[in-house]
Structures are given as structure tokens and as C-alpha cells.
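#struct-help
A.M.: can someone run this one for me? Single chain, 364 residues.
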Amino acid sequence: MASSRELRELVVLGLGAVTSIGPTVASAASAFRAGIVRSHPLRHFTGFDGDTEGNPITGRPVTGFTDGFAQFGLWLRLALGALDDLRCQLDADADQPSAWQGTALIACLPALTPERFALPTDDVAGLLREAFLDPLQQIAGLSFAQPHVHTCFGHCGAGQAVHLARQLLAAEPKLERVLLVGSDSTIDAQSLGWLADQGRLKTAENPVGLIPGEAGIAVLVEPPRSAHGGRPLGRLSPATISAGLGPEAANIDLGRQLGATVQEALRSADLTTGADLYVDLNGETWRTECWGIALTCMQKALGNHDLRTVIPGTSFGETGAASGLLALALATRAFVRGHARSKTAAVVSVDELRATSAFLVSGA
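D.P.: on it. C-alpha cells below:
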């Protein structure tokens, strides 16, 4: 078992993705760097702008891949696609169930709130296990280390998953690796209706709303110098997570908390070349205002370091619970391909309950 000192960092061993601009992590990262966007009218949902006729909402779907799927089936489809991409990059034995028996699974999924989903909430853990976690293992033909199958929720799910993965690997001698899987879609009819009722969708009448999207992401991590081997792609530093202030929190308070969260994550970073901050901005005013306040606080505390904001949502749309792992994958690929502009990247998230999280990504 790796010591707690060794687990100050985790090593990224593999990545996989299915997105609107690329069916693999390599193609998606390249398309994002090129600024490619693929928007499509979502004809299964019509929005209304004032007194005008209803027009389809524009979104960023994974066309030809998720058509006809909804909720758990849709999340499974995205997760399995990302897992297939990841397994193609690993050793030949990655297709053998026995190869995953020393691997824990952490799924990052949307919170099953009654406002968004018309689902029973008396046994959420049982519902997730029956409708997503068990089918994921059965369809993929994999057998993960039991009972180490866990779930994290929302935008901050990636930060929570990185934190939990570090805890599991430090505490459990039989665990060799942890698979992080993020899957979410804001394109299904129920999610679109929920967003429309709140006035959060981008339309001609509301130009500062979000553009719905979807993505599936898979990330395989292990301790440094693991006996399992493999060529590392990147490294992850411990996540900093702050508790939610509640949906009614003032933007200035949230901005200050977000700035403090990122500062804490950057405490041990080499900022001589600045840092790329991958932020889950999506076009909504409250997120933009909070990020502006956070940047102001950080510049005062960190001096004149070049802190560059990177916004995956410009290409992928609002990918919800998958957004954090998507940012992790994009940052890691930038280091792998050699076009990262700094030695450090940070994945920064704010969820619906105004919790914040941040963790660092660096080259291998």
C-alpha cells in the first residue's frame, strides 16, 4: 500500500470521453483547442420567446450516439462510451474482468432532485445501484472491487471524487486503482423543462442563459510509483472543497468563497508560468459575477501571476456533473500534447447549492 505521503498526488493512467465535438478524448481535446462548436436544434423541446412562435432550443448533443436515450439509459450510454475509449488506451488485459478486481469505481452523476427528475427519492442509493451502477458493470463486463463503488453528485462531484479516490487508495491495501466516471446530460426533456421553468436556457429573449450539453468521461487514477505500472499521463493534487452556502447565497459571498477555494488549491503550485484555470462558466450571470469576484480576490492575494481562464462550456455547453472530469481530461491532454501554457492547471467548480471545489492538474 502506498503511504499517505506518496498520496499527496494521484497519477492519471488513462482517459476516455464521448462529447458533442469528438467521440474520443483525443478528438474532443483537439476540437476544443481548435475552437470547434457543434450546435443543433433540440426538436424534442420548444422554447417560447415572448409572443413569438415556439422555436427549438439550441444545444450541444452527441448526435447519432445518444438519440432516443433518456435519464439512466442516457447516462449509461455516455459512461460506457467513455469507458470503451479509455480501455482502448490500456493494456490488452483491460478487457478481462479480473483486471479490474483491484479497482474502485466512483461515479459522478447529477443529483436526483425532485425538481429536475420525477423519481422516487426515498432510496436514492438503491435506485442508483439498480439503474446505473450495476448495469454499468454488467454491460461493460467488468467486476470492480466491492464494496468500493461510490457516487458523487453535481458540478463539484469531480473534486469530491478526487478527494475520495485519494482516501480510498491510502486506506485500502487491496485497492490498486480508482476509476472515475462522469456522465450527465441537460438535453433530456425533463432537464430542459426544469431549466426553462427557471429561465436558465439561452434564447433570443434570454441571451445570458446556458446552452445544454452532454458528455461522458472516464479517468483512471492510481498512486504514484504504483506496482501496476503504465505510462502516466498527468498528476492530480489534493482537492479543496468548501461547503455549500445555499442557493440563496449572495454572489459576492460565493465569489469570495470561490476565490479562497482556488487560492488554497494553488498554495503549493509553481506559478512562475502562471496557471490555466478550467472553470465551469456556462453563460449564466450568477456564475460570471462570482468568477469575476473570485479573480479579483485572487489577484490581490497572489500578485501579478498570469491566471488564464479556460471555459470548456464554450464548446461543449452545460455538461453538469461531467464538467469537472471533462476539464480534468482537457487539462491532462494539454500536458500530454505539449501545448499547455503553464506548469499548472486548476479545475474549478461551483454547484447548484453554491459549494465550491478546486484541484490541480500537472504534467507527468
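A.M.: thanks! The longest strand covers residues 10-18.
D.P.: also worth noting: The first helix runs from residue 25 to 33.
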